[in-house]
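Run log // design_07
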């Protein structure tokens, strides 16, 4: 399994979009195969600035400069549950998906907190 990833940063925000792709599909595409036969379910997240322009605060006790920035983080997952769209989703699968979202969110918060408060 390979991960196809696109990242971008610009004045309005940053994003990372990724999709798992099996190696056979990549080899098929590299050999000139039809991309319509390769299923991609992209997931990812964006971090966008919201609110006023960031301000810098000088901490006179530590001589550190802190940047106050309000941001909005949007996380999106695409998960193939079943090929039949009318299939009912089991409660256990919903629990797995909820745990995935919760775990991902907690890790992002922990990483961003570490970056902002070294």
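design_07 sequence
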């Amino acid at each position: 399994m390979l991960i196809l990833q696109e990242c971008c940063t610009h004045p309005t925000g940053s994003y990372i979009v990724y999709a798992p792709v099996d190696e056979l599909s990549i080899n098929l595409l590299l050999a000139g195969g039809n991309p319509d036969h390769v299923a991609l379910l992209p997931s990812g997240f964006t971090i966008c600035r919201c609110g006023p322009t960031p301000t810098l605060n000088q901490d006179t006790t530590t001589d550190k400069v802190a940047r106050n920035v309000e941001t909005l983080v949007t996380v999106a997952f695409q998960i193939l549950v079943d090929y039949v769209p009318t299939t009912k989703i089991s409660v256990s699968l919903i629990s797995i998906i909820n745990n995935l979202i919760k775990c991902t969110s907690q890790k992002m918060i922990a990483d961003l907190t570490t970056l902002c408060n070294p």
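The chain has two domains: 2-78, 84-118.
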